[in-house]
């Protein structure tokens, strides 16, 4: 399903900060590589309108889809985002945790090679785009170990990245308003965007 709280409200927040954004509803309940191909096509179409810098932001399973668009090795230059921001994504398709994402994307009996080929931490290369990542230690749906796997992979590859782990907070916080320290993620993300020249 698409989470409405992680679509238009996010666009409104970015617009209020002077960042042009739109919602892309990638196909759900479809097998890999359909979501990846759809996101790549959307990035190509956006670039074809004259937009020079394209970033992708995704939440939960959408974070995994956005991460695939950023890190999958066979993307053409015009279909890979310039930066990516990921919120509490299921990173590994090899872990036993959050198996629902794996089953929806890969099926019940996905072989080890396919699971590895769709695990974000396995795909990170030095040329991967700069990444902003946040998660909460209290997430019981997608445990925080997923974020640590990706952050470690980014560090090993030397990819510019910023990672924030907040002690408390459930899954699917979206803008995380009134969610304790996790509510700081929007200001931190905006500051990161500004530091790279992607936000005014």
From TrEMBL:
Domain (Peptidase S9 prolyl oligopeptidase catalytic): residue spans on this chain: 39-195
High-level lineage: Bacteria, Bacillati, Actinomycetota, Actinomycetes, Micrococcales
InterPro entries: AB_hydrolase_fold (IPR029058), GDXG_lipolytic_enzyme (IPR050300), Peptidase_S9_cat (IPR001375)
Protein name (database record): Prolyl oligopeptidase family serine peptidase
UniProt entry tagged with the keyword Hydrolase: yes
Alphabetized UniProt keyword annotations: Hydrolase
UniProt organism field: Microbacterium salsuginis
